[in-house]
Amino acid sequence: MDESGEIQGERVRLRHMVRADIDQMARWPRFWEADLQWANLDLTFPGERDAYFERGRSNGTRRRFVVVDERGEIIGTVGLRNLDLQRGEATLGIIIRADRVGKGYGTDAIQTIICYAFDVLDLERVILDVAESNRRARRVYDKLGFVVSGSHLGVGAITYVDMVLDRSVYDQNRRLPSSSATEPECQVPSPRGRGSG
Ligand SMILES: CC(C)(COP(=O)(O)OP(=O)(O)OC[C@H]1O[C@@H](n2cnc3c(N)ncnc32)[C@H](O)[C@@H]1OP(=O)(O)O)[C@@H](O)C(=O)NCCC(=O)NCCS
Q1: What is the pLDDT of residues 161-183, one digit of tens each?
Q2: Contact, 122 vs 115, CB < 8 A?
Q3: What would the pLDDT profile of 132-168 be if each residue is shown by its tens digit?
Q4: Beta carbon of 95 within 6 Å of any ligand 1 atom
Q5: How far apart are alpha carbons 74 and 197 in whole angstroms?
């Protein structure tokens, strides 16, 4: 597998973010839950959209993708930050747009980027932190084999749970029968194999 191109999941595909995507993301509905306000992106003005794109675009220590559904609509963003190829580690982040959560897309997108992290980037572990109160996200991470490695207090004295997925667990999970929700589907076609999205 090479590192370029799109990544096909079960239902979603991930592709590198381009500036035009941000204009679509600016029209996403808001999360109303108090503890998900951080996931409402400030993209009202063109300057904010430019800044968001520059801040988030893929570079040496970051890979940022949009999540595209079966109909070609952008329904989320998922990425790896603090990417350290020598230590074999990166930090996962994801937002699925508010009106598309709870339909399996997040699980699929995370499974897909995990596949990319271990099979393409050859990482040893993927880490993340998640607000203790974020039950839906924690369910997804548990389901995919992440385990709790600690906790810490964040902004506003919110407790965050630290989680890690080790390569050994990933390898173990992919040996499970294909009916298992934890088996990854990882296909990285060549860039010319698909349209630009
Ligand atoms: C977290 C997130 C990425 C998950 O993606 P998603 O598409 O909503 O999740 P899925 O539909 O794939 O799976 C949700 C799972 O949580 C379960 N769930 C939903 N609400 C839940 C709740 N309140 N408590 C416990 N489990 C819950 C669902 O039943 C499902 O589990 P199942 O497959 O065993 O039935 C998405 O909800 C999101 O972007 N949320 C806002 C931003 C965010 O929290 N990002 C993560 C920060 S660490």
Answers
A1: 999 999 999 999 887 665 444 44
A2: no
A3: 999 999 999 999 999 999 999 998 889 999 999 999 9
A4: yes
A5: 10
72: Cβ below 6 Å to ligand 1?
Answer: no
3-state SS class at 93: strand
Pairing label, strands 63-68, 13-16 = antiparallel
CA of residue 87 relative to chain centroid, distance: 20
Fold of domain 7-190: Aminopeptidase (3.40.630)
Q: Which of 25, 32, 139, 142 to mutate to test the pocket of ligand 1 (most atoms within 8 A of CB)?
A: 139
- Total Cβ atoms within 10 A of residue 154: 13
Give the chain's count of helices (H) and strands (E): 5, 8
Are residues 53 and 101 in contact, defined by beta-carbon separation less than 8 angstroms?
Answer: no
Residue 181 CA to ligand 1 centre (angstroms): 14
Q: Return the structure tokens found at 2.
A: 């090479």
Model pTM score: 0.90
Ligand 1 site-directed mutation target among 12, 80, 140, 146, most atoms within 8 Å of CB: 140
